[in-house]
Amino acid sequence: MATGNIGKKLQSEITCFLCLEYLIRPVTLDCGHNFCHACVVKYWEQVSDQTACPQCKVAVPRLNFKLNGQLANVVQLIMQLTDQAKRMSRKSKTCQGHEPAILSFCKDDLVLFCIHCDGSQEHQTHDVISVAQAAEEYKGQFLNCIENLKKEKEVVMKHLSDTEKRSQDLIQLAEAEKKKVMDGFEHLRELVLEESTFWLAKVEEVTTEITLKTNDQMAVISQELFVLDYIIRDMVEKCDQPNLELLEDVQSILEQYKKKKKFENPMGFPPEIKHEIWGLQDFNAFLPDAVKQLKEILTSGYQLKKQNENTTLEADPIHEKRLRLGE
C-alpha cells in the first residue's frame, strides 16, 4: 500500500498540470511549479498580459521561466523503468507446452503460434514462416525504419538550428536599434520623455514578439524530436532482443512508425517583425535632424507645443514622418 502511494506521488510530480501527461521539455516558473514548455506557452497565449502560474495562480513574468534539464532526464528514466516493468510483467504469448523450436510466425496476423496446438488451424491458409526467418525479415524492416527516422531527425535538427539563428539575428537587430533609440533620446530626455518611452516600449514589444514566436516554434520542434527519439529507442531495443522477444508486439511497434505524421516545419517569423525593426531604423535615421531642429526652435524662443497648436509648418518632412511612423 505504501509503495503504491509513493508511486502515485512520483507520477504526479512528473505529470504536467495542463495536459496531464508526462512532462515534455519541462520548464520551471518562479513559483516552483513545472509544466511542459509547449503547454505553458499555449496557455499564456489564451490569457491577458497579466500572466500567472496555471496551478497556483501566482503572478509571474511571461518569459521568466527556465528549462529544467535535470527534471527532463528524471522523466525519461522513469518512463524507461515503467516500460521495462511492463515488459517483465507481460505474460508470454508463446506456447508453454512445447519446445520453442516448433514455433512459427504468421505474417498475416503478425503473431507467433505453435504448430502442434489447436490454434494453429486458423493459420493454415496464411503466410507462415519460421521464427528465424521472421526475426531476420522484421529486423531488416526495423533497421530501415530507424534509418528513415534518423534522416528525418537530421532535418528537424536543421530546422531547430535555423530557428535559433533567425531568432538571434532578429533580436540582435532589435537590440542594436534599442541602443540607438536610447542614445538619440538622451538629448531630448526632459522634452520628449513620453516619445522616448513609446519607442523603447516598441523595441521591447518586437523583442517579446520574436521570443514568443521562437518559443512556439521551439515547442513544436521539441515535441517532434521527443516523438522521434521515443520510436527510435523502442526499435533499437527491439533489434537488440532475442528473436522471440523481438517478434512480440511487432504490430504495435510498426504501427507507431506508420501512424507518425510527417514533420512540417512550423511557420517562420512573420514579415511584420522585420517591418517593425525597419520602422525603428527609419526613426533613428531622422533623430539627429530632429534634435538639430528642436535646438533651433528653442533658440528662437518658440515652444514646440505652441508651434504645433498655432503654426502650420510648410513641408516639414520630419513631422510627417513621425506621424506616419506613429500610425
Task: Walk me through what this model shows.
The chain has ten helices and six strands; from the N terminus they run αββαβαβββααααααα. It has helices at 2-13, 37-45, 69-89, 131-185, 193-239, 243-247, 250-259, 271-299, 304-310, 317-326, and strands at 26-28, 34-36, 66-67, 103-106, 111-114, 128-130. The strands form two sheets. A three-stranded antiparallel β-sheet has the order 2-1-3. A hairpin with a 5-residue loop joins strand 1 (26-28) and strand 2 (34-36). The chain is elongated and about 110 Å long. Mean pLDDT is 77; it is low at 90-94.
- Largest sheet data: 3 strands, antiparallel
Count of individual helical segments: 10
Order of helices and strands: HEEHEHEEEHHHHHHH
Strand proportion, as a percent range, falls in 5-15%
Number of strands: 6
Distance between the termini: 67 Å
Instruction: Quickly give the structural class.
Output: mainly alpha
Mean pLDDT rating: 77
**Residue share in helix:** 55-70%
Gross morphology: elongated
Radius of gyration based on Cα positions:
31 Å
Quaternary class? single chain
Q: What low-confidence regions span 5 or more consecutive residues with pLDDT below 50?
A: 90-94
Give the strand line-up of the largest sheet: 2-1-3
